[in-house]
């Protein structure tokens, strides 16, 4: 039974990673809680850690889709084509044999100037695109950049953890944080990982020997 639940979890995670916009992270979170609860102690941390990293990747990919859609909608030059993602759909070159389609009588053909044939598609490398997106979105539409994270309550989890830690000092055990915030372990772990909180692992995934440092972040959420 436990093995089948775990297999179903990995299958659902892989499907969600393929179509991140349509994925249901709440359902994946509940499935992970169920799977981890039935695993032996030595397998809990490994399984939960791998699944949480994959869920974070799904969130990242979903954010990229939202950012790309927003960028296309606000780009006066037209949509930006990312060749890394579209290489299978781009025609590299084409050779046309005029003898196969030539008319019996000569036909005068008008050669279009180069500027009339240029596509409106703008090709940019990933580094330049990400730099422009970071600048424009930070100045113009910061709320839209965070829309995808807000839909999954990730920011709420990070904020709840940060608020609680500000009222304490020293080290806070994971179990205490779970009880005070009334959240399951999956959103707490996601909030800690994505929020950049520092913690010490002194035991298993569900042990009380996981301690979070108060007032210390790797990066502000």
Task: Describe the protein in words.
By secondary structure, the protein is mainly alpha-helical. It has a domain at 153-221. The protein contains eleven helices and five strands, in the order H-H-H-E-H-H-E-H-H-H-H-E-H-H-E-E. The protein has helices at residues 2-18, 25-37, 41-73, 83-86, 114-117, 126-139, 142-145, 147-151, 154-166, 174-181, 185-195, and strands at 80-81, 122-123, 171-173, 197-201, 210-217. Strand 4 and strand 5 (210-217) form a beta hairpin. Helix 1 (2-18) runs parallel beside helix 3 (41-73).
Strand order of the biggest β-sheet = 3-5-4
Computed structural class: mainly alpha
Summed up, the helix count is: 11
Count the beta strands: 5
| Mean of pLDDT | 69
What is the rounded distance between the termini? 38 Å
Shape: extended
Helicity level: 55-70%
Using only C-alpha atoms, the radius of gyration works out to 25 Å
Largest sheet: 3 strands, antiparallel
| Beta-strand fraction estimate | 5-15%
Question: Which series of helices and strands comes N to C?
Answer: HHHEHHEHHHHEHHEE
Which consecutive residue ranges, at least 5 long each, have pLDDT under 50? 114-126
Keywords:
3-stranded antiparallel beta sheet; 221 residues; 57% helix; 11 helices; extended; mainly alpha
